[in-house]
């Protein structure tokens, strides 16, 4: 008998009245399906696919218990049987797939994006536009009853339980913390009073739903904002919550307004499991840990170390719905790993778009991306093995087409091979690893170091040719652009050319920021994404948790840049405006703390032996730099297209070859997949 591959991760969790088949929780994610047309039917397919993937327990996106608690005016709410009945298609699909699912009850409080928001006190959030109305005692009671009614309706809808959201700075958390609770009545003042709301909610929910219903409480274990809870307060609340009737306590890390990245790529894997362990030691119910756990190996190690009883992974199930099944079958090398980029999940939600996943465009779009075997297999050539070409070639092969993939260089990955070198973006290695494995499993004929010509493609009589040939750097029209000081971002990141001690970067888009990040780190500086202690010191987090909120009075320990760097932008607008909404702020902080000088509204006059001559706000100056690095955008590279079209060969452009704007890997992978399914 062979030994279990992940014995801790895949062991069942017995709650007495029910058993969760393994220690994996698919954490709550709002996807936007909750509010879209046919959204519940689409959610049913989305959750059912993950249930088929053997995840132990799933949590829905947040559902408000009443109107004032909604995230936005038309966000999902459950306060009547009419609302609950819509959810029955979801719970039925999950149970038919042998899965379990709980509904998250989320009252946003002052974080809501509408003028009717309420909170313990009239304290405006720094990340939302409206000031909340302070609740009266009667209003508080009314909202407690709304939580109870919502839980009861969730049971009616067929859910296996509820998760009560008490972290991330939402409504319940706003009562707990002195930062947002300025009341002087029995709901404010002392900690005993401030924690009354969550305890009362859990107690009354348990009384309403009975004993055979899962109650998870999401406890803010590390607030990461001034005026948050202390470790002892968190422990006290955790004990009271379990006494009130919670079956499981889940970990919440950081308020949404915290200026510390907690889930971005730059955060090390499992960076906060030490927090869960610290609190777990004082509790008796099972405790879940979370944040940046994206492989079964990391999850197994966390459980084996005793840091938690269960692992929550959210975005990894967007990237791969069969994460657990692959781990069970000892095929973890086939998992499509979440790279924590946030580009298609959280960034979409903050733009009121339906969430998806950069590395898996099927996520939340399962009804659109339907793989089917081709009735008439075609002979397909894909030119370029970057993200667009890889996704297209592999998907077309899976559909039964005969595919040849040509790549001029000696490796697959395209622009990802540069991205993976940026400090904090090392996870891009995982996507290349995944594509390499998929190529091994497919029938794609990969031809590396092959610069194929249009005539060769025409002579081979392909039914379809897909050009995924990528981009070439745009060369700005500046006098002296051919000076020996000038390098392109490809020279720096790919060719690894030597760069001097003073540098001017022309262009402050995503690539400009990446190059600045790359050059502002010394070779000796440990990558934050692989070393937890380095990350905690860099962001001023007390890893012994003796300080309130884990941060009060803690100084950041910053490593200085080995270079003097100027990041320049021609446009007269906010620097880094095109960066991701949920990660851009952290990149800007990083560079500011590395003393990178950021200039907007720059006119470039010339480059000579003295450096880069510029004009800013009517004042001319010379930046006496050793090197000028060009990150001024890209142009599509599709030199084979016209000859193929002239020969009447069915030709498609995807990825950067189609549109070079911002090197959008999300669009590239989605385009490649969709095109392959259309053959």
Automatic annotation (TrEMBL):
Domain NADH:flavin oxidoreductase/NADH oxidase N-terminal: residue ranges: 9-333
GO molecular function: FMN binding; iron-sulfur cluster binding; metal ion binding; oxidoreductase activity
Keywords: Flavoprotein, FMN, Iron, Iron-sulfur, Metal-binding, Oxidoreductase
Pfam families referenced in this protein's UniProt entry, alphabetically: Oxidored_FMN, Pyr_redox_2
Residue span, FAD/NAD(P)-binding domain: 378-641
Keyword Chloroplast: no
Cofactor(s) required, per the database record: FMN; [4Fe-4S] cluster
InterPro entries, sorted: Aldolase_TIM (IPR013785), FAD/NAD-bd_sf (IPR036188), FAD/NAD-binding_dom (IPR023753), NADH:flavin_oxidoreductase (IPR051793), OxRdtase_FMN_N (IPR001155)
Family: In the N-terminal section; belongs to the NADH:flavin oxidoreductase/NADH oxidase family.
Record-given protein name: NADPH-dependent 2,4-dienoyl-CoA reductase
Organism (species): Uabimicrobium amorphum
